[in-house]
Amino acid sequence: MSKIIILFFFIFYNLLNANILQEAIDNAKEGSILKLPKGVYKGSIIINKPISIIGKEDGVIIDGEQKGTVILVTSPYVTLKNLTITGSGNRHDQIDAAIKINNSKQSEVSDCTITDSLFGLDITMTNNSIFSNNYITSKDLELGVRGDGLRLWYSNDNIVSKNTLIKSRDMVVWYSHGNTIEDNYGEQNRYSLHFMHAGKNLVKNNTYKLNSVGIFFMYSKDTTAIGNVIQSSLGATGMGIGLKDVSNMTLKDNTIIYCAQGIYLDRSPFEPDTNNWVENNKILYNSEALHFHSISENNVVKNNIFQGNIEDIINDSRGAKTEQNEIVGNYWDNYNGFDINKDNIGDTPHKVYQYADQMWAYNSNIKFFYGSPVISLLNFLAKLAPFSQPVFLMSDKEPKLKI
Asked: Is 281 left (phi over 0), alpha (psi -120 to 50) or beta?
């Protein structure tokens, strides 16, 4: 009798701990829709067939129990919607994630909440899919050891829209082309959006606040960033938008405000006989509006508003050839000229020089004192009576006097 009781208890215990969601997936036919009621579904799952898993009410939680990746998708035509995914493992070498999607197409992850997961959405070799309206945050770790909130690797022609990334590390778009990144929000991350070897992407109407870097493009081309707001990038080198070794890029109608560096240009455009266009942006109240590093010529900087910045132009390498960019038709609140004929174009060019006294242009440690009375006084005295010939940086031949 005691053996029967023990056997019954063993069977009941195993049923309680069975991964009932994985069993339901394994037993479902292709094209099935699994509508989950409210509850906690413990254990990681693997989806290797075209199905949909949808929370039919709030409070559907899939808990990975701190082991590995919570949901692994290896099939096309998979939909995950209205779920809370939590409790991934913490191994960077395994890229433990809330949701990992490999070799998929026409899949969707929307209206999901991702918490306590090292990486959020890890998407590899997945095309023509939608990732929309998800809330993503990482584990409670220091910034550098958090996982990325959303990663696109070798993934093309996807729509990434209306997602919120809070206290993650980066949102990454690497080796991925033709994606639309639109209406997303990022806060207290490292790189809110980081491109590498990516082309023909559209970055539109995103808002990034209190991150180390807003948007950074590296080794990329043929991308447009339009209508984005980047505010309060943190630290002495906090950056709004950065371009490194990129070509044929368009930055248009963006607002960059309260950053250490507004727009950072490093060896861009990179390819010969190409341009980058910086047009109709508002670059407001930054320590540096335009920061040039290394040779960066053939950029077209037109019809922007430069207002409230401590420095309009910084060249930290002396060889950046800033004067060989087309800079014309911008509004500069530091312009000291006149408009006698009232055509809203200055009668004389707006010229910017860099003085040897400006030590903070080459020493990032001194940038801590930006805006202080002492630095402001030194800056004024350097312009009033420079002890060496200043370096000519740029000239706007048609500066606007009114916004």
From this structure: beta
* CA geometry: angle 305, 294, 216, nearest 5 deg: 60
Token couple for 148: 């990325």
Q: How far is CA 369 from the centre of its chain?
A: 28
> What single DSSP character describes residue 231?
E
Measured from the Cβ of residue 91, the count of other Cβ atoms closer than 10 Å reads 13
Identify which has the larger pLDDT, 13 or 400.
400
Rounded distance between C-alpha atoms, residue 216 and residue 221, angstroms: 12
- Per-residue pLDDT averaged across 157-167, rounded? 98
Q: Give me the pLDDT at residue 382, please.
A: 60
pLDDT at 167: 97
CATH superfamily of 33-169: Single-stranded right-handed beta-helix, Pectin lyase-like (2.160.20.10)
Nearest to 307 by CA among 187, 186, 400: 400
What is the per-residue DSSP string for 232-276? Answer: ---STT-EEEEEES-BS-EEES-EEES-SEEEEEES-S-STT--E
- Alpha-carbon distance 289 to 262, whole Å? 5
Q: What residue spans define the domains of the chain?
A: 33-169, 212-403
Nearest to 371 by CA among 287, 284, 272, 297: 287
Sign of the C-alpha dihedral, residues 29, 33, 39, 42? Answer: positive
